[in-house]
What does this fold into?
Amino acid sequence: MQAECMYLTSPLEWNQFNPNTFDSQYYNSTKEIPLTDLHMKRVFLSSLPPIQNSSREHIINYWLVNGGGGSQYGMEQFGITMLKEIVRNNYHNIYTNTHPIMYLFQYRGAGLSLPSIHCYTATSWTDCAHELIATTVPSSPDQSLKIIHAMSNANIAQDLQYQIQYAINQSQSTNSTSTYIYGLSQGTGIIETYLTIQSIKSQIQIIDGIILDGVMSTKDSDIFQTQVNNLNHRFYLYLSKCQQDPLCSKAFSLVTGTNQDIISVALTLQTLFETKLINPLCTINLGLDSWDLFTLIGHQGIEMMNVRPLTAILIARLYRCSVDDQRVLARALPFMISIAQQSMAKSLIDPPQQYPNDGNILSLTLWSDFIGFDINENIKTNASFYNDFCIGSGVINKYNLVRVGPIPVCDETQISTYNYTLPTALKDVLYERNPNYWGKFEVNQKSFRSQRTGILLFNGDLDYNSPLSTAQQVEKLFQMKSIRTKLVQMKGLAHVTAVQSYTKQGGFHSATCTEQIILQYLYQQELNVDLDTLNYTCSLKENLIGIDWFYTDPVINQTLYSVFMNTTTNYWGINMTDIEPIINASNKFHTNSFLFFLLILYILS
It folds into this structure.
């Protein structure tokens, strides 16, 4: 593999400029307008370099757009993994005229882009806001705010269009060029904004496909409240998955010695914690002194794929609290509590050592677009909305089964029980929404080169950051615009499927299912496939690792062994022979189903 880097000059504000035609050389020489230098990086196979001089060459430009602040460094592994998958499938030898190039998009203000904004010493968002104003342009707070306000979703989306056009212009004069854009999490919102602005401004850029993973919606949505609500919904959904799984539900009932379903037992545990009637030998004496602390551990367990069975196992063993449970939990719980509390401990928001994997600081300014349901509900311009926002979030938090925990920006700005006041510095660093684009969702059919291409969406059903319902909403929004769209729903997966859709066949050391599907999508011209004929088999529930309730995968087994502090490998704490008949019956069912499937194929042929 090889990599190339460069800087591309763009306007600090895109308002009056067209990203498809902006003349960076002219403005770089005249300095007539404020500018920013965007750092660009591309990775490719050395045997298939980007620039060729034959019309037979097919260039595949694959743009990778990160979430959570837009770090370029954070997306590099995605590009490298895709190149490895190309080699693993021998596409580099089969399709020697096809040149795949991974472009690592970086948000303005982050990483190596100039100017970049930082608050290296702050441990609260309020202090961070003060530091941003003081350090971005030390001699001028007004100039600092001018730069900070330019770090908007609209500007970042047009940076993306500008860089894509630059890459197209480099290759398209002599080569056939295809352009695909992948975004994860917040990056999906940037891509939706990219499509919306070019449609509204009639500045169409022709591309070949969009891939959104962990899908956000920019259509009149309050992202933060959605997350608060869905953390609770996700917990119930996770528990119901155990209840619906014959093996998990059987194991759970064997541990608890009751016919109550897992949700009822969880609610009972919550009541026992809150009424101080919980058995202290498995909880309070070991440091687990509240239901909130337990749900923090449980939430982290659900989020992390390699320990996903943990939460159900803990509920069962805490409820039973046998002598063996006390022995195991005496070692394991203090470790779990320590990990959970570390995640909540006060720390630097933007630590210097994080460079070049930075960019999270941009989340502060981008809140401007992602909180509120209409243009007037803005934490910058509407003081009562901010107060109501914090009160409402606190109420939801208090009465949910699973709580998101203290909301930092509300926690640090609380004056009294029902008084949350946004400090001037925090209000100053937020930008005012652009009414031309905010809350809108537009896309022009002319943006897509062919009707064979369109939008490919991926979402896990355990994703609370970007819940499946949001992905379904976005799917319908695209379809209403007559854009060909395919949503791949992945059972038992949380946020961003590309990093966790491992298959039972390949395990954790192979490409994820999402990567396998995307590879086909990138090479659809060579493979003669489209959104409808891609092979999605790996995304079926029975083929994904998802939730490995009985830790059959060695990576999950080893991780649980570490989490349980090497005390046991029988994490459920039951006699496994009691559920072997169910396992055997399940295996027999799948075998018979497969044989039946082969018989049908034989008859059809």
Notes: The two ends are 44 Å apart (CA to CA). Confidence is low (pLDDT under 50) at residues 588-605.
